[in-house]
Write a structure and sequence with these properties.
The chain is of the alpha+beta class and 86 residues long. Helices cover 27% and strands 12% of the residues. It is elongated, with a radius of gyration of 29 Å.
Length: 86
């Protein structure tokens, strides 16, 4: 099946495309009970080769500094539905 997909140019070898693969991940077809196939790629080692991207989320200290540097304004509106809440 994989050979047929390669002949139909669904899959191409990197060498044929002039690409040098730095981190190869094996892919294979798994036959489903329905008779169709599923493409599976083993990405188990991706984390080993990837470098963490800088986080766009601020840390706690930056957030607290931002909050405390702003003037605080609030309005409180309470409706009592029962005299027992007074």
């Amino acid at each position: 099946m994989f050979d047929e997909l390669e002949q139909a140019k669904v899959f191409r070898l990197p060498e044929v495309l002039g690409i040098t693969v730095e981190y190869p991940y094996p892919s294979f077809l798994v036959k489903k009970p329905s008779g169709r196939h599923r493409l599976v790629t083993a990405f188990a080692d991706v984390a080993r080769y990837s470098k963490p991207q800088p986080s766009l989320m601020p840390d706690v200290n930056t957030t607290l500094r931002t909050i405390t540097s702003k003037p605080i304004s609030h309005r409180l509106s309470i409706k009592y539905h029962s005299p027992s809440l007074l």
